[in-house]
Amino acid sequence: MYESQVNEESIYDSFLNIVIQGNWHGAFILVILQFTILNLLLRKRFRYYKTLVIISLVVSVVYLSNQQIFQYPFFNNSTNILGWLFFYFLGTYIGYHYHTLKKLIKNNKPIIVFVTIFAFFLFTYFNEGYGAEVSLLEPALLPYFACCFFLIYSLAMSLVGLKQDLTNRIASYGSFILLFFPIIAPFLFSFFGFLEEQTALLFIFGLLFILGMSLGVAEILNQYTLTRFLLAKAFFTDDTK
């Protein structure tokens, strides 16, 4: 989280660092804004082009592999659209071909598992096995993230009893959860510090704690017009009916 030094930094510098450069945990808002602008410009022209997914992957990998060439003083390179371009075109393609891809995922689960494992080993190979020390945007991570998405989606389709309303709520409040998480994260070990040696239990209870607190606060804020704008809520329809 970005911390403004009140005595050393002016309001202008704080605005530049946080809002323009994105030097805080909510920097993804700048990425989403760029996605929105890009979507308005391109959605009617490129919705059916499979090659754009491949081209965007090449562009993002080349950019992330040579960030020192693209250094410029005003903006933060971590929010540069070139680094996120692959995710935009992949997400757009999935959205426009959702039903077709859903059938392919359902019928090819073993292949998805195999490709995901291969992408993981590819990532560890190029990063010499130091997976815990890499940043979010690594060239070798892009294919792995894409494979993980399809793998998680295939596993989600196999779950029995998972309420559609719950998944829609988590998705619609996704931006708020990401922004609210750093606020409540420091309290996580205050409640569940005794599970420090039990990684699996800590993960489960931590996930329930974060989702429960975030969704609870989001539902309260959603009840009032003056606070509803804080949620950046997305709306989803059930296309399974």
UniProtKB/TrEMBL annotation:
Family matches, as InterPro entries: Acyl_transf_3_dom
Keywords for this protein: Membrane, Transmembrane, Transmembrane helix
Transmembrane intervals: 24-42, 49-69, 81-98, 110-126, 141-162, 174-194, 200-221
Domain Acyltransferase, chain residue ranges per copy: 21-215
GO molecular function: acyltransferase activity, transferring groups other than amino-acyl groups
Database matches in Pfam families: Acyl_transf_3
Highest taxon above the source species: Bacteria
Protein's recorded name: Acyltransferase 3 domain-containing protein
